[in-house]
């Protein structure tokens, strides 16, 4: 009788293990699925690369009180245009460039948002441009949101 109960016990254990193994196999078996694209409200799980950051954060549209919405860099620093520039050409150099540093681009081969382009300066460096007009910072703007360069000399303007 003891042998019969041992055999029944082994059969029951094997049946339980067999069923559990079946469930485990089917639960953890690779099942391909089509992942949905990320929505704008989802965040990336990995750190963004420099190329991703350049592509998405070259400029921001930032509210600026009485000036309305202005164009800034990714850190909120105000960007300006120079009335003496022409489309695709910077005419600010020497002392001008010391007071009004160019918004430098790493190369012409970067992905940029709408209305932004990259120009090649006469010194061989690259500079971001808004609708073809080169973009600059103002040396006296010390923090994000400063717009102290707007209207300087009648030739410098905040980009709106």
Provide a descriptive summary of the structure in words.
By secondary structure, the protein is of the alpha+beta class. It folds into 2 domains: 1-28; 59-158, no CATH class. Helix content is 25%, strand content 18%. It is built from 3 helices and 8 strands, in the order ααβββαβββββ. The strands form 3 sheets. Strands 4, 5, 6 and 7 form a 4-stranded antiparallel β-sheet that branches. A hairpin with a 5-residue loop joins strand 5 and strand 6 (126-130). The radius of gyration is 31 Å and the shape is elongated. The termini are far apart.
Count of distinct strands: 8
Give the distance, in angstroms, between the N- and C-terminal Cα atoms. Answer: 93 Å
Mean pLDDT: 78
Helix percentage range: 25-40%
Q: Quick recap of the structure?
A:
The chain is an alpha+beta fold.
Keywords:
single chain; 2 domains; 160 residues; 3 helices; 8 strands; alpha+beta; 25% helix; two-stranded antiparallel sheet; four-stranded antiparallel beta sheet
Can you lay out the helices and strands and say which pair or pack?
Elements: H1 2-28, H2 50-57, E1 60-63, E2 69-72, E3 80-82, H3 95-99, E4 104-105, E5 116-120, E6 126-130, E7 133-134, E8 156-158
Antiparallel strand pairs: 1-2, 3-8, 4-6, 5-6, 6-7
């Amino acid at each position: 009788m003891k042998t019969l109960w041992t055999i029944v016990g082994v059969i029951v254990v094997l049946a339980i293990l067999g069923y559990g193994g079946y469930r485990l196999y089917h639960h953890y078996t690779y099942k391909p699925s089509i992942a949905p694209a990320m929505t704008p409200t989802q965040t990336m799980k990995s750190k963004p690369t420099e190329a991703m950051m350049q592509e998405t954060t070259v400029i921001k549209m930032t509210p600026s009180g009485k000036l309305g919405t202005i164009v800034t860099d990714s850190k909120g620093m105000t960007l300006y245009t120079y009335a003496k520039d022409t489309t695709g050409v910077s005419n600010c150099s020497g002392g001008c460039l010391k007071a009004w540093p160019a918004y430098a681009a790493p190369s012409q081969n970067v992905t940029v948002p709408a209305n932004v382009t990259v120009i090649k300066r006469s010194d061989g460096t690259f500079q971001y441009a808004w609708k073809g007009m080169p973009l600059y910072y103002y040396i006296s703007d010390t923090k994000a949101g400063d717009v102290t360069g707007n209207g300087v000399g009648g030739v410098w303007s905040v980009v709106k």
